[in-house]
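Support request from a user on the community tier.

User writes: "When I paste my structure tokens into the form, the page sometimes reloads and wipes my input. The last time it worked, I copied everything first. Here is what I submitted, just in case something in the input itself triggers the reload:"
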């Protein structure tokens, strides 16, 4: 789990640097229940994409509503709404 937290922090930093933090936060919030379906597609795609820690972290993020909300809050931290 600690490794996933580090991956998420790296994603937040990268998305903010690219100016995509608010956009990704909006997509994750709007996705709601569809995030769970997206997580299943990530799991199904792992044999084709390679089973990496980042893909596992993405799937876990998408399937857990609380983690998704925490990630969105981190993305929105310090950005005007």
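"...and here is what came back when it finally went through:"
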């Amino acid at each position: 789990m600690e490794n996933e937290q580090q991956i998420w922090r790296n994603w937040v930093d990268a998305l903010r640097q690219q100016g995509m933090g608010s956009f990704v936060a909006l997509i994750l919030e709007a996705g709601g229940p569809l995030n769970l379906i997206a997580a299943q597609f990530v799991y199904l795609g792992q044999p084709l994409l390679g089973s990496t820690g980042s893909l596992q972290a993405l799937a876990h993020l998408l399937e857990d509503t609380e983690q998704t909300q925490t990630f969105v809050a981190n993305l929105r931290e310090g950005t005007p709404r």
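Agent notes: The reload is a front-end session timeout and is unrelated to the input. The first helix runs from residue 2 to 17. The radius of gyration is 12 Å. Escalated to web team.
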